[in-house]
Amino acid sequence: GSTHLTNAYKYSNMIMGQDEKDEYGVVYLTEGEIELRKETDNLYLLLEKMRLSEERDSKRLPYFEERATSADSILVYLPHVVGLTIGRLLRFSPMVSLMLAKLTGLLFYIVLCVLAIRTTPVLKRGFAVAAVLPMNLYQATGVTYDAVITPVAYLATALILRGKQQSLSNKEQILLFGLSAFLGCSKGGIYIPILL
Question: How far apart are CA 108 and CA 1, in angstroms?
C-alpha cells in the first residue's frame, strides 16, 4: 500500500536530486501527488498520516508517513522508482506517473517470471500457474516490494532446480549468487533461512 508508494516517491526524489529536505518519515511531494494520495488511501487513515505545513518548497509539501516497512532499499522498489521518476521528469500528471510506476513493476514481474519458466528444467506449468495466481498478479500491479521479490525468488528457485539436474554455467552461478544475496538482504533478512 501507501507506505510502499511513499518509499517509491522517496527514492524518486533521491534520483531527481530533490531529497535534501526528506528525512525519516517525511517525504516531499507536489500538491498534485498529495491529492493523488488522498484518492489512493482510505480517507480516515490519510487524515491521521498527513499534516501540511505552511513551508513551501517549489510547490512541494511535506507528506508525513508514520509507518515503516522492513524493506529499506531502493533495489526492492527499483522498477517502480524508474517508472515514477520518468513520469515526474516528463511532467506527466501524478496519476499517469503512478500508472507508469505500476506498469514498469508489472513488466519487471513478467520478464523475470518468463525467464524463470524458461530456466527451470521441471515444473514449468507449476511456475506458470504460480506466476498468474490472482494474489501474485495483484501484487505485481501495485507499487510494492512483492512485485520485485516474488519474481526474483521464482528465478532463483528455477536456477536451483536447474543446478540440481545439470551444472550451472559461470554466468548462471553469478546470477544465482546475486539473486540469493538480494533475497537475503530483502525484507529484513526474512529469506535467509530459506536460502540456507
Answer: 19
Name the nearest CA neighbour of 83 among 72, 73, 94: 94
Report the C-alpha gap between 25 and 28 in whole angstroms. Answer: 10
Residues of the chain by 3-state class (helix, strand, coil), percent to 5: 65, 5, 25
Q: Give residue for cell 507508469.
A: 100
Residue 70 DSSP label: S
Contact 10, 28 (CB under 8 A): no
Decide if 139 contacts 151 (C-beta within 8 A): no
Task: Report the chain's terminal Cα–Cα distance, integer Å.
Answer: 30
Whether this prediction's pTM lies above 0.85 is answered by: no
Among 24, 25, 29, 23, residue whose Cα is nearest residue 9: 29
Q: What is the pLDDT of residues 134-148, one digit of tens each?
A: 999 998 988 888 889
